[in-house]
Amino acid sequence: MESSFFALGTIFVPVLGCITIPVAALLSKGFRNLWAMVLATITFILPVFLIPAVLQSPSGEIVYRYPSILNLEFILLIDGFSIFVSLVSSFIGALIVLYSIDYVSHNEFQTEYYTMVILFIGSMMGLVFSGNLIYMYLFWEIAAICSWRLIGFYRVPSHIIKADKAFLITFFGAVVMLFGFIQIYGSTHTFDMTAMRTVPVSSLAVFLILIGMFSKSATFPLHTWLPDAGVAPSTVTSLLHAAVLVKIGVYAFARLFCYTFKIPVEWNIAIPVLVMFSSMVSAGAAMVENDIKRILALSTVSQIGYIFLGFWTKTLTGVAGGALFILMHGLAKAGLFLCAGIIEHGTGKRDIRELGGLFTSMPFTAISFLACILSVIGVPPFGGFFSKFMMISGTVEAGRTGVASMGLFVAVMTAIYLFRLFHAVFFGEKKTDGHEGTSLMVGIVFVLAFLSLLAGIFISIPGSFAEASAFHLLEKFK
Fold first, then answer.
1. Across-strand partners of 269?
2. What pLDDT shows up at residue 476?
3. Closest CA to 147 of 230, 223, 84
4. How many domains are there within the chain?
5. Sign of CA dihedral 215, 221, 223, 224
6. How far, in whole angstroms, is CA 412 from its chain's centroid?
7. Among 5, 89, 313, 473, which residue has the least CB neighbours within 10 Å?
8. Is this model's pTM higher than 0.90 or not?
9. In whole angstroms, what is the distance from residue 229 CA to residue 109 CA?
10. Cis-peptide into 221, omega within 30 deg
């Protein structure tokens, strides 16, 4: 069976399958939930079958082209990097869907919830495998619509305002990015990314495209929508931070600026400073924030800077570290947000000033929370340590020791605000009663915490995949 079947399936099983969820709901709620889980699981399994074909390809990639309207070919670009990111996003997405079965079981609009979540995952798959800038933009916007509906899931007026804010900022960024794509088309007469490798692009085009990437990945100063999105269910914030939305921006950055376009020298100088400044500002804000989910959101803004930095280096060590941190940050941050969901369900509170002493009543959540924190900070042997070490080492290798020092300083800040959060919630004076989540919910966060540790102990397995992906990215760019 051709690899195109599996790649098309990875995209269209969730994108078209989400339409069948309302039909499944007519049979029963249980069947609807099961069907959503089946769709998410299939989406994770299908990319696995792409690995042998890519390994057997002399060029390390496979390209499929399908005719479409206006001579805009639907292009599938399959390589180690796209497979790696699709596997990470779909795996974490499937775990979140499983966790959702208990988490949203008492809420209204569950059918819409599962429909949007599955479409959200599908939009990421479509973007990851797109080899045409216009189709990348199309899936980019589908993700924005899904996030808008999911952030406003509870239908509270103040929540809807924040959902609108998230949509408007990311939509604005996407439209600006589209103008950048159009400008590039004006000089290359194509939207085919495989035909534009090492093609120089103007400073204006880079600026326009970066606006789109920074808005989607919530990079300062276009980051304000992401902490506000914490009004959504914790499963949705977990999807936003760990599996889909903010990863879209860094993936596009790697795909376009590390693999396709040759950007002007001044942007090579400015980008690492911009992303590390964003990391420092958001880390500083997290140190004084008191809402659990806003602290974790600001942490994501801060940590995303490392991924941008790793890909910017265009060194094997840095790019591999950036790819690896997509996995490590995804596992740990998904675990943290899902733990936050258990805390919110168990206590009815999110303000750390109103929490404390919950370790005794929520021990499994506390242990899982701590393990995920250690991975985000970068404490060995957790997976986050190795990926951060590689990204900072790659920055030094690229000759930017000052920027690398900023990265180390942000790591110290990360430890301060995350340990402050852990201590405020689980230690000290007990200010409120709390209870563990369901066995399913606690089991999922424990799995994510355990995988964060396991991925570090057996770092050679994901590390070799990430390194091979980085090697092919850089080889194609030469």
1. none
2. 66
3. 230
4. 1
5. negative
6. 23
7. 5
8. yes
9. 18
10. yes
Tokens linked to 398? 């690229």
Tell me whether residue 225 is exposed, middle or buried, using C-beta atoms within 10 angstroms of its C-beta: 0 to 12, 13 to 18, 19 or more: buried
- The three-point CA angle 279-252-275 to 5° equals 15
What pLDDT, on a 0 to 100 scale, did the predictor assign at position 322? Answer: 92
Here the tokens at position 32 are 């609807």
Cβ–Cβ < 8 Å for 266, 299: no
Give the list of residues 6+ apart from residue 30 with CB closer than 8 angstroms, or none: none
Residue with tokens 């988490």: 103
Do the domain assignments include residue 464? yes
In a domain, 228, yes or no: no
84-135 pLDDT per residue, tens: 999 999 999 999 999 999 988 888 889 999 999 999 999 999 999 999 999 9
Quick one: tokens of 127?
């973007």
Torsion 198-188-173-82 (CA) sign: negative
Q: Residue 341 CB: number of other CB atoms within 10 A? A: 28
- Rounded CA-CA distance 176/44 in Å is 32
Asked if 317 contacts 394 with a C-beta cutoff of 8 angstroms, the reply is yes
Could you give the C-alpha distances from 144 to 109, 249, 265, 330, 360, in angstroms and in order? Answer: 19, 12, 32, 19, 40
Residue 9 belongs to some domain of the structure: no
Alpha carbons 349 and 62: distance in angstroms, whole number: 49
Inside any domain, residue 413 = yes
Range of the domain at 378: 271-478
- Rounded CA separation 63/61 (Å): 7
CA end-to-end span of the chain: 32
| Contact present, 319 and 80 (Cβ < 8 Å) | no
Show the tokens assigned to 469: 């992906």
Joined tokens for residue 466: 């990430």
Question: b or e along 17-32 (b: 16 or more beta carbons within 10 Å of the residue's beta carbon)?
Answer: bbeebeebbeeeeeeb
Q: What is the DSSP string of 176-235?
A: HHHHHHHHHHHHHS--BGGG-TTEE--HHHHHHHHHHHHHHTT-TTS-THHHHGGGS-HH
Rounded to a whole number of angstroms, the CA Rg of the chain reads 21
Q: 3-class DSSP state for residue 132?
A: strand
Below-70 pLDDT ranges, the chain: 1, 243-246, 476-478
